[in-house]
Amino acid sequence: MLDYLLSVATLVTIYSIVSLALNVRWGWAGLFDFFVYALVAIGAYVYGVVTLPPAPSNQYGDQYILGLHLPFVAGVAIAMVVTSVISLIVGAVALRQLRQLYFGIMTFSSVLIIAVIIMAAPWLFNGIIGLYGVEAPLSQLGLDPTTYALLFLGICLLALTLVYLLLERLFWSPFGLCLRSIRDDEVAAAGFGRNPYSERLKAYVIGGAIAGLAGALLITYLTTWGPGAWSPIETILIFTAIILGGTGNNRGVIIGTVVVFGLIGEGSRYLPILPGFPDAYAALRIIAIAILTIVVLRWRPQGLLPEPHMRDGVRRARRFRWFGKEA
Amino acid sequence: MTVLLHSVGFGLVTAAIVALASVAFSLQFSVTTTPNFAHGDFLTVGAYAALVGQHLTNSLPVAVLSAVVAGSACALILNLGFIQPFLRAGAKRLSIFLVTVSFGLILQNGILLLAGGEPLSYNLTTPSFQNVGPFQWTYLDEGILATALVVLVLLHVTLRYTRFGKAMRAVSDNPSLARASGINTPRIVTVTWALDGAIAGYAGCVLAASLGSMTPTMGYGFLVVIFAAAVIGGLGKPYGTLIGALMIGVAMEVSAAYIDSEFKTSIAFALLIIALLVRPRGVISAEIFNLAE
Amino acid sequence: MRVGRHHMGPSAVSARFSIVALSLVLSVTACGSATATQAKQPIKIGAEGPMTGTFASTGQALWEGAQVAAKEINDAGGILGRPLHLDQIDDVNDPADAVPALRKAINVDGIQFLDGPSSTVRPATQPILDQNKIPFMFQGGTASFDHNSDPYAWRPSPSDIQLGVAMAAYAIKKGYKTAAMMFNTGPSQSLEQVVSDAYKRNGGTVVANTVLALAVSSYGSEVQTVVKSHPDVIFAQYDDTTAPALFHALEQQNNLAIPIIGSDESAGAAQIKLITPAAAHKALVSVEASTNTGPAVDTYKHYYNLVYPGQVVNTAANFSYDAIIELALAIDAAGSTDPAKVIAAIPQVCNPPGTDVTNYADGLAALNAHKKIHFVGAGGPSGYDQYHNSTGTFSVYQADATTGVEAPIAALSVSDMAAAAQGSLAFGTTG
């Protein structure tokens, strides 16, 4: 029982990190970004090829680049650097002239192209089979599986806490305030001398680094990663988590993730199987999430925990109103 | 040379299907400026409705009619039941976009729930081909091309020569001015959505016939190709979108003949990204391709 | 600067704690009933696969096979006198889903054995299965399992390497000197490589290789490339959504004149229905592990029709069916559900020599009479080598032109397979 709960808790923690990454891009910068989960995947792949030993050379065996057999921390760091660089490139190109809908279409298409490239070039990341056999960090301690699972959960929680603290700091920093002012009124912000393009790009790269971290943790936990593990639906679920929890609010985003992935995601596993309707609970799960999104957007668009606001130079949470849109 | 021409021939058929779906999308966007992410799912609904119609009455016209009606109904439900209330409540554009995404998911998964995820067979005619000029087409292909042409011509005639069409163009060009001139803008919007859904439903039925089968994610998967055509032609420019659809359809098929066919759909994505980067407002810039002149 | 709150707010922390606490309380009360009488407590076997999503046909076939076997076993009195209870585990072919789903099945539902998983999620699930000492019957073609050393892992279905060699062997025997390849992008590509290598090793020439993208509306250009290269035969593996469009194009461009050699996938009832039995009969043969005739298959079909009346018998479910029966017989032979004993018993009931038994009831009776048995299943005679892989023979099947039911038209002998694997099979030894 404990093992099961630990596995759910670990995954929800890692997904929360992804939500925080998207929150920076969408909640703070207002970018309708579909690319975030592709960066999670890239982070996972990079961590894999950097920490795995070189690919075995049997004929029908697996193939992937690198294989440097580096330790955990180095793998995470390199994954984050690579995703930051890719975010920089994609962001620099896409943000220069695309807004809103076009940006969304662009990032959506980029995800699909990356998927095609990975499948078409199996020498990169082993194509459809993907990478596997990733070593668990600190396995030399020789702990029994349940204790190790607790330790790994602790590592993920530590990562989540660090990211959360960093983002809370950033939220109230001049950079964060500037970013949100650009989101709310770009023309006015530009009038005050802000550069929307460079601020958004910074937000994009920060989001990319965090996504890379989440990807590295995810592949470490699952010990494997392949095309079956990421698809556009994951991104939509993360968006729902953010909308539900409170766009822009870090705590809210974490709560939203717990609800969407923890309660709804896991809860649907307990539904009985209806003979003759094999896809029943998978379909119902998505329908429930879609309806939830619509309801929240209509009656409480700011989410469970609205974005905190600065008033009279003092930080305050918005006054709590059950229903109604933002003031 | 025959290889190239045959590929162009196949490409035209693909282009016809893409054209129907993307012109409908562009038309709706030009009048309402609401990007509809559920558009692909209108196609899926149309296909399944056609299957049901075929199953119940074994008559092709009834099947097609079911597709058209079902697509239209979905579009109307989306607009009247969701988008209008949201607009009245003052929702942001991005929220409405997310609402269309959610609506699309509900449609898709509703079909999944009711019909299951397995591909359902949809065989209309047994293919026997003819050589029409330099191209090689089956009766089904010719049917697709002919009806697509008819629909597009009808659309063109409606837009240019009927009062309703002129009203649509007015709303697309300047909604407030249109309303000030006495045009019933909400009614125009509603009818535009109905038209969009009808054409999309028909496109879905045709797509399923071409594929030989249908799945719940069929239309959603087609969405990128639709977006590609719409963006290349210019979002909101139906005539430009038509050109875009032709380019995409032919490019996909011709490329498969010469480079690794694995990349067929990636060609559409690649063209889309290039268009977005080079000319996001549309590769076709000539003003005559705007809806309003 | 004023120091803000640098920790998670109390509301969020308490929300998370209460969720975990609530689940713990619920689970403790659920486990309280474990003191029920041991005698009639069911034996729980999990059936894991992609039950939803793109690969749902594979998972559903696995589930159907397991259900059929469970009916047969429970009708015969169960395992060790206890009823068999199946637990469906949906992994959507996604390791991130497989891990919590499997853990729930093990920790919450209490499965002790597993039918499945499939290739994609095996790396993620294998450590969990090993850690919990759960013997499992893996069903996936991946060649990386060919040298398995995990004592809990067994594979009753043939490896892709064997299947690929069989396909090539049949083409060589028919005297097809040139071939074109038409395989979907994705998992089918590894099979393509095996077929291509085996075919060339025996002297065949590959004149065209087109990769079929998924879910496109037309394969006109791909078929054009193939037809232009004038192959004697086409090797192919493609999924249900590709099949109809592909066959349309083939019919359109050359009237299905080129014979197609497919794999077990092309023999699926759903796929034959999609391309129409007439077309299947005309152009397609499928190579798969020998099955489809014999008393074991008759038993399988009998119980299939009991569990799924009115449905065409799903021949893709045979290995899952065999897996459950093999596990059941092994547990009976071991006299307990102790994993170590069951693992030792599996080769005892599955490998020759022994009295051939073709269904569970006969196997159970023979075991009770202290005989050594050899299970011959719906997927053919079983037998595990030192890597826990099963070796099998292959046959070639063709669909009936009206009903689409597959019937064998040729068989590939062990010596054919051995010769093909070495590259010494001669052309044209079959008419």
Report what the structure shows.
The complex is a heterotrimer of chains A (327), B (293) and C (431). Chain A has one domain (2-230). Chain A is 67% helix and 3% strand. Chain A contains twelve helices and four strands; from the N terminus they run αααααβααααβαααββ. Chain A has a two-stranded antiparallel sheet. A two-stranded antiparallel sheet of chain A has the order 3-4. Residues 318-327 of chain A have low confidence and may be disordered. Chain B has helices at 2-32, 39-57, 60-88, 93-115, 139-161, 163-173, 175-180, 185-211, 218-233, 238-258, 264-278, and strands spanning 120-121, 129-132, 135-138, 213-214. Helices cover 75% and strands 4% of the residues of chain B. In chain B, α9 runs parallel beside α11 (264-278). Chain B is globular. Chain C is of the alpha/beta class and 431 residues long. Chain C is 44% helix and 17% strand. Chain C is built from 15 helices and 15 strands. Chain C has helices at residues 10-31, 56-75, 95-109, 122-131, 160-173, 188-201, 220-228, 242-254, 269-275, 277-283, 295-307, 318-334, 339-350, 360-368, 414-422, and strands at 43-49, 84-90, 113-115, 136-137, 153-154, 178-184, 205-212, 233-237, 260-262, 284-289, 355-357, 373-377, 380-381, 394-399, 406-412. Chains in contact: A-B, A-C, B-C. At the A-C interface, α1, α6, α9, β2 and α11 of A face α1, α2, α3, α4 and α6 of C.
In short:
By secondary structure, chain B is mainly alpha-helical.
Which segments of chain C are poorly predicted (pLDDT under 50) over 5 or more consecutive residues?
1-15, 17-37
Order of strands across the biggest sheet of chain B?
1-4
Distance between the termini of chain B: 39 Å
| Percent range for β-strand residues of chain B | under 5%
Any descriptors?
heterotrimer; A: 327 residues; mainly alpha; two-stranded antiparallel ribbon; globular; disordered C terminus; C: 431 residues; alpha/beta; seven-stranded mixed β-sheet; five-stranded parallel β-sheet; 15 helices; disordered N terminus
